[in-house]
Each structure stands twice: as structure tokens, then as C-alpha cells.
Amino acid sequence: MTPLSPSHRPFRWRPDQQWEGYLFILPSFAGFLVFIVLAVVMSLGISFSEWGLTGFKNFAGLLNYRQLLRDPVFWQTFWNTAFYIVTIVPLQLALGLIMAVGLNQAIRGVTVYRLIYFMPVVTTIVAGAIVFRLLLATNGPVNNLLAAAFGLLGLPFSAPNWLGSSDFSKWSVVILTLWKNTGFTMVVYLAALQGVPKELYDAAHTDGANAWQRFRNVTLPLISPTTFFLFIFQMIGAFQLFTEPFVMTSGGPANSSLSVVQYIYLAAFRDIRMDKAAAMAWVLFIFIFAFTLFQNRMQKRWVHYESE
Amino acid sequence: MKLKRTLLLGALLLVSVLILSACTGIAPQAAAPSAGGEQVAAGEPVTITWAFWGSPEEAASHKIVADAFMAEHPEIKIEIWNQPWNDYFTKIQALWASGDSKVIPDVAFLWPTPRYAAEGVLENLDPFIEASGYDLNDYWPGLLESAKYEGSVYGFPRDIEVNVIYYNKDMFDAAGVAYPTDDWTWDDFLAAAEALTQKDANGMTTVYALAAEGGKWAKWVNQNNGAILDDYVNPSKCMLTDPASVGGVQFFADLMDQGYAMRPADLSQAGGDAAVFSSGQAAMILQNTSRVSAFNAAGMNYDVVPPPIPADGKRHNGAGGAAWVMSSGSDNKDAAWTFIQWLQSDGGGETIYTERGEIFPALQSVANSPAFMTDQPPANKQGIITEAAASDVGNFGYFPEWGELDGSIIGPGLEKIWAGEIDPETGLADICAQVDQFLADNGYPK
Q1: Which of A53, A73, A165 minimises the CB distance to B408?
Q2: Class of B164-318+401-441 in CATH
Q3: Domain locations in chain A?
Q4: Which class in CATH covers the domain with range B44-160+321-367?
Q5: Helix pair angle (A72-102, A224-239), 10° resolution
Q6: Contact (CB, 8 A) for B339 and B332
Q7: ipTM > 0.90 for the complex
Q8: Subunit contact B407:A166, Cβ cutoff 8 A
Q9: pLDDT, tens digit, for every residue of B257-291?
């Protein structure tokens, strides 16, 4: 056995050189400290103060939080956000999976289809919103199409006011978000599907399992870690929804599509209530944290890891 | 080898120190030269920063104003800080929050003034007004209220929003409706609206008599002797459940329910009032004077008329406009005052903006001068002056929390009424309950 030349020596940790390592991470660590850690700590402090444009005015204790509890708009934005979560997350998972399964087949031009479905992910959301505003106009193409479909079936139809009524405004935000994000879900699922070993399908096939049974009992369990990741990822994304309602409906009408993060923004920059905005951000954080923790606990019930 | 490593580590250290120092704020610099007052060497102009929002076209007007001022006052140099409306407020807030007089604009365009005055970033102009004898009586009635905080003047509104009815003469001719007169009433308006509105076989309106933004609603309330709040500076309760206020909102809502007026949500989808008026989808719009230059450029056959008033009501124009303010952190307050005073004078900034068609002036003398009384359309300029003379408080609250109250509670509540989802009486009762709660939570009346 020949000794390794000095340049191929395996890395050995030398205590006397430790500070050099820290020096190397210092530039990015400094940024992290100031822009993340300091900001987080400050926002907690601000939420317990009276804090205006020029900074600290008074210590306020729980005042900002108490005001929030009594603020009907805050609760409405929470309800709106809950609506976004329960619609966007499952629909996006289901649609993304359907698209991924479809595009995992050996069809001609499959790359082109994948490209097309992924395109919205890299499209500017504002441009998308402008197009969707036209599509969803009261006398726009979507309503004309619906009217034609209802007419064929002989059903009565009153054109929904997608953007201007508080019954439908949330749905128009959901539609835009699905269009924008489902492509991402699809790509992640596609990767997961390609990781499922082919032998398992062959074995199931030999055992007489039909296509649905193979999907239900082989595919779904094996991609469940991906589903779990997408679920958490999209839930947090839905909690933090901002741009979609902002560009689609500006939160209206009557706050019916206003999201929590949008309301935080308005509190900070329209009302110059940095203190109230910080308190809302912390309440939102607690919700997201609790939900994620809960999901993490629940994953044992349905997420299957191959190594186990 | 050894040297190289030392060099590398040294460079890293340097970068880190640079980043750290950049992050922890600008190190205090040498005392500002003007710390001892306004001592500036003779012949060297004082530079003041002038902040405003606006499109490139508007910025061009501001540039002309700045040049005209500097020609008259060579001792002061104006530096422009211009941002689009969307970014203006967040950026100027950040400048003020920094507390650094090097970056804080000396003079800024702002709305709403009381909100910022309450934060202490604006200079109280009372002492300057007193020392210079600046005439406040030339402003339209009620207008200065929008720039006051705790009784003191913190800004001068550049213009006043005067909302008038623009009407398309060709459409009136086609419908055989006589042109409105300055003393028309709500009943006259309804009769004209019925004749001008066109509907299809299903009863859907194809041509509207009126397109008005939802935000114009307060005019109807005030005309009907109603009110939003019992006091606009120190409110104790919401007045929107008062029968007169309900009547005003009902008038607007009925216009929509009958298909005479476009619902505000449909209006914004259709591209706004200028678009539907130009394309003949609406025969009338209720809007301030900002549309004049566009309609003139398009060569439209139109005129303006003061809005109709109810039989036993009154003429009312909600007085408000964005104002020039001075930063309390300015190092050059005397120069800033000289500039503001010149901006807000007949023959100064007011005249130039008015001549360029940018504004309807805040000063009555300028409105009655040739700067406004041109031979350009609309013909009925006297109608605009008539409406402006009826200016008064009533459209806004003049307390710091008004923006939040209006943006989160009153505006959204009204949107439900305009969408036809709730009747005015119920909707206004909901709004008032929330408004009263909000006022109590924020310690009003103070």
C-alpha cells in the first residue's frame, strides 16, 4: 500500500485552523445575521411595541395582538387564506399528478407537452394575471364558453362575475394560482414517477393487478414522500399567497379575496402600522409552524419511505 | 505560498468588514456643514431635494417648474427625486425612517398629510406662514383642512379635486335629450339617464347613461345633507345610517340596479371611465378635471356641467388634494419654504401646472386667471368654478387612522353595495357598526 501524496491527503480537521473556516463563511453569515436573524428578532420586538415610521414610540405589551383579535378584517383575511389552502393545495396536487402520469407515458412529442405545461411557472405572474382578467371578464371567453356549455345541456345560466363579486373573486385567484403553479408540481411528480422501480409494476402485473390497482398500491405509496414534500411546500405557499390576489383582484371586492400577507403589507405601508403588521406576521408564523408540525407528526400514517 | 494565504485571508477579512459596515448602517459622518444654521458661502447655491411621483409626462412639467424657479432664485438649486406612484410611498417612507438628513427630501408631494404629520416627519408650517404673511384665504374653502394636523398647517394642496359630469354631446343629440344646465336636479338626471340608457332584448344594458368610480359616492351623500362621520378631525361616530346618508347611497345604488350606471367592478374591468366615455359605452362620467387633456387630444365632442343635486339638497364638492410638504429633518428649511411658497403662488408653480393642463388649481385666483380660463374645451369652465366654490370637508377624515378605516372597512363595505350583494340600508348598518368599533378601539373621540 503506497502512502497518499500530500495533495491527496484526506481532509483532517485542525483545531488551530478553525478560525479560517469561520472567516470563509463570515461574509454570507454576516448577511444572514443582519437580514434574517436581526430582522426576525426585531419584528418580534416591534410586535410588542408602538412602532411608527420613525421607530420605537412606546412599549405596548400585548396591545397589538389584542387589537388583532378584535379586527374583523384580520379574521376575514384568515378565512380567505384558509379557503385558498383547502382549494389550491389539493387541486394542485391532484392536477399535477394527473398531468405527470399522463406525460410519463411513451407518447410522441412528450417533451413538448412537458415544456408547455411547465411554461406558466416561468411566466411573469403579472402578465398571466392580465390575460386571466380578460378571460374571466363578465362577458369574456370563459363565461361565453360556460354559457354555450350550459345551453347545450339545456340548463339555466347566469354569468358569474369572477372578479367583481365576493362569491367568485376567491375562485379567480385560485384559477390563476393553479395555472401558475401546477407545472411545478407536475415536474416534481414526474421525477418521482420515474424513480419508481419497473420490477414492482411487473410483479404486480404478474399478480394480476389491473392498471388502477397498480397505481393505487404501487405508485401512490412509492411517491408519497414526494406528495408529502409538495403538500408542505404548497401549504406554506398558500399561507403566504400575495402576488396572485394582489394582481388579480387587489383583494376585493369587499376584502373577499384579501390574503393575510396582503393585509400585512397594507398595514405596514398603507396604514404605517409596522407594529400591527409585525404582530400579524408572527400570528401567521405560529399558524404555519403549527400546521407543519402537525403534518410532520401525521406523516407516519401515510408516507412510505423505502428504507423503512 | 505562505504569503499567498495571508493575502487571501486578508482579502476575506476586508470583504467581511466591508459587508458588516455596510449592513450596520452608514458610519456617522463629519458634522453637516449647515449644522450651525443656514450659513452658506455667498454665491454658492443651496441645494434642496424635491420629491414627487408621476409619469414621465408629469415629470416633464415638474422639470419646467423647477427650471422656472431656479431662473428666479439662482441662490437655490432644485434636485429632483422622482418615483412612479407604485413605489413612491414605500421608498419615501424608507428615506424618512432612516432619519438621515442627507437623503431625506426637503420638499415632497404627499397624501394623506395628517398620517405623516402624526409620525413627526413633517415640518409645521405655521411659523413660516406667520413670518412671511402668506395668504391662506386664496385656497378653496375646506381645502387646507386636508393638510392640517392638530390645528396646524403641514402642507399646501397643489390642486383640488373638482368632480363634474362630463357629457358626450353627440350621444345626447342622438337620444334627443337636451344638454344639462348648471342647476339640474337628481330628477332631471334620472330622466336624462332613462333616455340615454340602451338595453338589449334580455334587459342587459349595452350603453350606460353614467360611468362613475365607486370612490365618487360621498358626493351623493353630502349633496343629500348626509355625512360619513359626525366630525372629520375628531370623530365620535359613524353617520352613514342617518336617513339622509342612506338616501345618497341609495341614489347611486339605484342607478346601478336600474342599469343606468355601470357597476364599479365592471367599470374597472372595462378599463376605467375615460375608456368607456371615449368609446361611447357611457354617455356621462363623474370625474375630476384630470380627464380634460386626454379628451381634448382625442377631439371628443363633449362638455362639462356641475353634478345634479337633489331637490332639497345642496351643492357639495369634497375638498382634498395631494400637498407639498416640508420634511422636519430638512437641513435647508428656509430655502424649502421659499420654494414651497413660490410653488403655491399665482405666477409661480400653480400657474405653470394650470397652463399645462396638469391641475385644477388650489388657489382661487389662479382658477379665475387666464391660466385656467382658456378657449380650449370644455366650454363650461364656469361650471367647474361653480362646483369648486361649493368645496367643503365631507369626503375624508382628517385624522391619521382615516386611511386604514376607509381602506379596510368603509371602502370594502361599500363595494358589497355597489356589487348589488347587499341593500344600502343593511350594508351601511354593517359598516357603521365596524366604524364605531374602530373609532372606540383607536381612542376616538380624543
Answers
A1: A73
A2: alpha beta
A3: 71-302
A4: alpha beta
A5: 150
A6: no
A7: no
A8: no
A9: 999 999 998 898 888 999 999 999 999 999 999 89
